Structure formats: C-alpha cells, structure tokens
C-alpha cells in the first residue's frame, strides 16, 4: 500500500544549527594528509577548545534539553557543556 505523507503531518525541527569542525591537524600541517586518512585527522588542542566553546554557545540558544545528531564521534567535545539526565 502506498501512503502519501505531507509536510504538514511530519514533525519538522524548529531550527537546524550547522557547525563546521574546529581546527584540525590538517589545518596547521597539510602534510598530515599524506600519512593520515582525512577522516582520522584529529582536532588540535585549539580545535578542541573551539568545539567546546561552540557547544556552550549552542547550549545558550537551545537549552540543555535539545536534540543532537552528528555524523562523527567527535561530538564529545562540543556536547561537554550539556547535561543529559
């Protein structure tokens, strides 16, 4: 059976927040791409601080009960300011 869904029936997010990653090793040393696959390039200490700060800023926008989705496991740094009870 074919069902039709309309946008009116779907629960859409009120807002979508896009965040680019913080500084990575590849940003400070382009030769890192010669020895490390792109998806394994780590954040630098500066990048980790940037990720934590953007997490704090997002927390001020959406509060501690927002929903999060990410395609990478690096969300641990940006989500550090949030409490998940």
Structural account:
The chain is an all-alpha fold and 85 residues long. It has a domain at 21-62. Helix content is 31%, strand content 0%. It has helices at residues 25-28, 32-35, 45-62. The longest helix has 18 residues, at 45-62.
Relevant terms:
single chain, 85 residues, mainly alpha, 3 helices
Q: Can you lay out the helices and strands and say which pair or pack?
A:
Elements: H1 25-28, H2 32-35, H3 45-62
Percent helix among the residues? 25-40%
Q: Which residue ranges are poorly predicted, with pLDDT under 50 across at least 5 consecutive positions?
A: none
Strand content: under 5%
Helix-strand makeup class: mainly alpha
Q: Give the N-to-C terminal Cα separation.
A: 41 Å
Per DSSP, the total helix count is: 3
Apparent shape: elongated
Number-wise, the strands total 0
In quaternary terms, these chains amount to single chain
Mean pLDDT, all residues: 77
Structural Rg:
17 Å
Helix and strand sequence: HHH
Q: Let me know the largest β-sheet.
A: none
């Amino acid at each position: 059976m074919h069902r039709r869904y309309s946008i009116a029936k779907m629960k859409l997010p009120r807002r979508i927040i896009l965040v680019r990653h913080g500084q990575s090793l590849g940003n400070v040393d382009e030769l890192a791409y010669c020895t490390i696959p792109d998806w394994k390039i780590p954040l630098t200490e500066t990048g980790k601080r940037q990720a934590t700060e953007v997490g704090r800023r997002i927390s001020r926008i959406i509060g501690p009960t927002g929903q999060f989705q990410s395609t990478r496991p690096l969300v641990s740094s940006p989500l550090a300011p949030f409490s998940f009870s």
